[in-house]
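Treating backbone geometry as a discrete language has practical consequences that deserve illustration. The sequence in question and its structure tokens are set out directly beneath this paragraph.
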Amino acid sequence: MINADNSIAPLYQKVKNYILKKIEHGELLPNSRVPSENELVAELKVSRMTANRALKELASEEILTRVAGVGTFVA
């Protein structure tokens, strides 16, 4: 589960921060695959809607690229 950092922040924001930290620390490199919604749900114990919103917002911010039927990748 996501830690208590920024306990006031919405859950989707915590998922976004989790992914951004992985990118910053080099765990997710450019063009590498990001965990799927289902993987985030299982790993972070959040709802699928929460995972979807986090990924969708990161894609709209051009941090991630989503390819239907293929996956989500670091831009």
In short: The helical segments are 11-24, 37-44, 48-60. The chain has a mean pLDDT of 93.
